[in-house]
Amino acid sequence: KFSHTKNPRPGSTHTKYAMFDLEDMAGMVRCIIWPEQFAQFGHLVEADAILAIRGAVDRRPGSEESNLIVNELIPINDLGTKCTSGIMIRLHEDQHGERGAQQLHEILRGYPGDKQLKLVLQMSDGTKVYLNPQNMRVDLNAEMLHRVEDLLGRGNYRPLVHRPKSNAGGDSRRRAPVGR
Fold it and tell me: How large is the angle between the packed helices 93-109 and 142-152, nearest 10 degrees?
C-alpha cells in the first residue's frame, strides 16, 4: 500500500511511503518504508520481489505486533556483490607450478576492480604460504571466476564474505530475514 505523509519532515520534499508484508519461511511481518528511504529504494517495492531487507524492529509498548522499519532494500542478485569483499585463490605447486601462477596473474590483470585478492600457495611439502598483494585488486564477475576455475580447477577459490555496509544508515546490529 502506497501513501503520502500529511506532514513531511522539516527540510524534506519526500512524502511518499509504503507499507507491505514481508514473508519468509518463518512467517510474516508488516514493513514500513518511510519517505527518505522510499525515495532511494521505493522502486524495488513490488509484489513477489525477492529482496534482502536491512531494518529495525519497532514494537509498540503494550502491543504484541511488531513492524519492521525498512532502512535499505537489496535486490537478491546484488547481495553477493554487496557481501563480498574479495577472493582467496589457492595455487598448488605440484598441479599449477610457475606457469599456472603466471597464467593466473594474466587473468587477474584483465579484471581490475576494488575487491581484495588473497593467495594461498600450497607447496609440495605441505606448507602453505599466504600472500596478500596490496597492489592488485580485482573485479569479481562471472567471467573472471569462470576463467580462474578453468585454469585451476574447481574448489580453488572462495569469496571473502562480510556483512553488507548500509547505504541508508540505521542500526547495523539489527538484521532482517531475506524473504519476499
Answer: 160
CA-wise closest residue to 20 among 39, 34, 6, 40 = 34
What is the separation of C-alpha 115 from the centre of its chain, rounded to a whole number of angstroms?
Answer: 13
Q: What is the pTM of this model?
A: 0.55
The three-class DSSP label of residue 85 is strand
Instruction: Report DSSP letters for 109-155, one per residue.
Output: HTSEEEEEEEEEEE-TTS-EEEE--TT--E---HHHHHHHHHHH-TT
CA distance 78 to 89: 22
Residue 25 grid cell: 519461511
Q: CA separation (Å) from 111 to 48, 86, 144, 147?
A: 35, 13, 7, 11
Tens-place pLDDT, residues 47-64:
888 888 888 998 888 878
Look at the alpha carbons of 39, 45, 51, 53 in this order and tell me if their dihedral is positive or negative: positive
| Distance spanning both ends of the chain, measured CA to CA | 15
For 19-34, the pLDDT digits (tens) are 888 887 888 888 889 8
